[in-house]
Amino acid sequence: MSTAALIQEVLSWVLVVSGAFFALVGAFGTWRLPDFWSRLHAASVTDSAGMILLIAGMCLQSGLTLVTVKLIVIGIFLFITGPTATHAVANAALVSGLRPREAEGLIAAEPEPLTVAGGAEGDAEGTRKETAGAA
Amino acid sequence: MRHHLILRVVTKLLVGAIILFALYVQFHGDFSPGGGFQAGVIMAVAFIIYGVVFSLRQAQRVFPPWLVHKLLALGVLIYAFTGLVSMALGYEYLNYGAFTPHHPEHGQHWGILIVELGVGVTVTGVMVAIYYAFAARPPTISDKDW
């Protein structure tokens, strides 16, 4: 095996294995994460990182053949449809009233003057600026 | 559906590619995986996705129900007629060798291509007809009651 072929082989396997790793991470995320939004986020890892790396690895495996052209076309197709499907699902969830669970927790964790309705106006304003600066 | 800008743009982009892929599966079926049934389903998906994203009315303007019903029967007729032609030439029903008696393999190639075309046309028609039948049904439960 020549050096070029060896480099191609090693590189393609590195890409395929890392793509499989991202697909696995996406699967675990979809299974273990708590709510819809974080699960959607995890599932999109499989769509983007996993898919791109796997197809790049397979392209290197097949070399300069018609198979590579087909793989690239499949890659473009998935590159367009994956985010579109994610967008459609997320949009449907948002329209039907589902909100991220974390958001409520984050608001509760903010400094007190924001949540206290009867607080002094100037004080609340100052705290808000401080929070914005910290963020 | 007016606010689904991304879905509309992506659908317009993909419907043509899906139809092209269906034709590829249809006519490349003897060299790679595929054939009439798969091609018919992919072709129907192009019309179904169009109907899902831009209303059923738009889809029926492109592919009217009367045409669907005619195509649905036409595919079966193509299939059966191929068999009858081979019978008329003095061979068994669907014996494709009849078309080119001096070179039977050529005839088999053409015969399978024509029969698969019939299968594809029928499957497209049936899938789209099933979609039309489900989508055109008036909802028995109003959206508010879900």
TrEMBL record, chain A:
GO terms for molecular function: sodium:proton antiporter activity. Keywords: Membrane, Transmembrane, Transmembrane helix. Residues 125-135 have a biased composition (Basic and acidic residues). The keyword Signal does not apply. It comes from the Bacteria. The chain crosses the membrane at residues 12-31, 51-80. Residues 113-135 are annotated as: Disordered. PANTHER family: ANTIPORTER SUBUNIT MNHG2-RELATED. This is Monovalent cation/H(+) antiporter subunit G. It comes from Marimonas arenosa. The gene is mnhG.
TrEMBL record, chain B:
It comes from the Bacteria. Residues 6-128 form the Na+/H+ antiporter MnhB subunit-related protein domain. Its main location: membrane. It is a multi-pass membrane protein. The chain crosses the membrane at residues 5-25, 37-56, 68-90, 110-134. One of its GO terms (cellular component) is plasma membrane. Keywords: Cell membrane, Membrane, Transmembrane, Transmembrane helix. Coiled coil: none annotated. InterPro entries: CPA3_antiporter_subunitB, MnhB. It is found in: Cell membrane. Pfam families: MnhB. NCBIfam families: PRK12508.1. Belongs to the CPA3 antiporters (TC 2.A.63) subunit B family. This is Na(+)/H(+) antiporter subunit B. It comes from Marimonas arenosa.
